[in-house]
Amino acid sequence: MYFAVPDKYRQASDDELIQWIKEAKKSYGDRMLILAHHYQRLQVAELGDFVGDSYELSKNASERKDADYIVFCGVHFMAESAEILSGDNQKVFLPNPLAGCPMADMADIEDVMNAWNYLKEIGIAAQTLPLSYMNSAAELKAFCGREGGLICTSSNAKAAYKYVFDRAEKLFFFPDENLGYNTGRWMGFSDDEMVLWDFRSEDGGIDPDKLKKAKVILWKGHCHVHTNFKSQHVDEMREKFPGVKIAVHPECTWEVVDRADAVGSTKFLVNYIDEQPPGAIIAVGTEINLINRMAHRHPDKNIFELSGQICPVCANMYRTTLADLANTVENIDSFKKITIPKDIQAEAKLALDRMLEVH
Ligand code: SF4
Fold first, then answer.
1. CA of residue 13 relative to chain centroid, distance
2. For the chain, which end, N or C, has fewer CB atoms within 10 Å of the first or last residue's CB respectively?
């Protein structure tokens, strides 16, 4: 896909862009809602009417029926979820259409359908419910809705597991193997009860007998930002800063989350950092833009990223610039909106509504 911001915006100063965005926003009033994910760059996040994690933002989009235009500063799957949950009169826009999520792309619907058909072939699909992390394409959400499954976020993954096991014997989790595995461990499943479906291997690379016995089938996908953190980073921080609090996102591997003091969704991490006393030392295992914003908000606390050496940036979240946002809000009536075929939208909404129910 080719996408370029017109020269007017590329050549403008930050001050000019901010002024244009505020003026456009003012002229539309409540009819325009700017949503910004916590991982957005500081200048963009500051212009959001609401800043939150993917769950909070989709809930906000579903509740603000008065907004005709929803400008979603995040990545593609988030704008799609907002489109699914918003009303027919509302239009959703992604200021930089190139902003995707590599983790969501790891669960391609064709690969998922091949896996599901294989489960049918060996006779276990009827006892299995699919559960997809919010970070997934609309087609995958629709598949979950169609098959009686649901969507979860990092804050309601345990409740979603319970929802599945109240109704089925097995769970097929997409696309983040780490959130899936960590939740499985917290719910008491052993390594013997969880298997990893590798979509690049024939029949998932799993022995059929093992697959038949498994309770939790995990899709082999990951977030390249959160898997940067290693257990040795936790050990090094503890040695270097006695009393340090380690707070991490559940997309990190089990070795990291198991050693941390606090594990939770982006919203949870924000609250956890807010609640620490002045002078606290907090090493955080998540995206760098959120960590920097929290450090900026709490100059009386020592807040830094967990590895001490890498820059865990989500390049896709970082794609959205002030120029993209100004271009979108000033040209909203000609800007391409997010569209999803009606049948996909209806089935995906079933899965998302179940998510909102179990939160
Ligand atoms: S941080 Fe990871 S999961 Fe979140 S949007 Fe970026 S790549 Fe996707």
1. 31
2. N
- For the CA of 102, the closest atom of ligand 1 is 7
By alpha-carbon position, which residue is closest to atom 5 of ligand 1? 101
Number of domains in the chain: 3
Q: What is the pLDDT of residue 328?
A: 98
Please identify, by atom number, the ligand 1 atom nearest to the C-alpha of residue 74.
5
Q: Are residues 26 and 111 in the same domain?
A: no
DSSP-assigned letter for residue 45: H
- CB of 287 sitting under 6 A from ligand 1: yes
Q: Which long-range contacts (CB under 8 A, 24 or more apart) does 255-260 make?
A: 255/230, 255/231, 256/229, 256/230, 256/231, 256/285, 257/182, 259/231, 259/234, 259/235, 260/234, 260/285
pLDDT of the residue at 55: 83
Give residue 237's pLDDT.
Answer: 97
124 and 209: one domain? yes
Ranges of residues in the chain with a pLDDT under 70 are none
The answer to whether the beta carbons of residues 323 and 14 sit under 8 Å apart is no
353-to-17, 60, 259, 268, 357 alpha-carbon distances in Å = 37, 14, 34, 22, 6
The reported pLDDT for the residue numbered 62 is 85
Distance 262 CA to ligand 1 centre (A): 20
Is residue 345 one of the residues assigned to a domain?
A: no
- In DSSP terms, 51 is beta-bridged to 36
Tens digits of residue pLDDT in 306-336: 998 888 999 999 999 999 999 999 999 999 9
pLDDT at position 185, please? Answer: 98
Q: What pTM did the predictor assign?
A: 0.94
Determine the distance separating the centroid of ligand 1 and the alpha carbon of 193, expressed in angstroms: 27
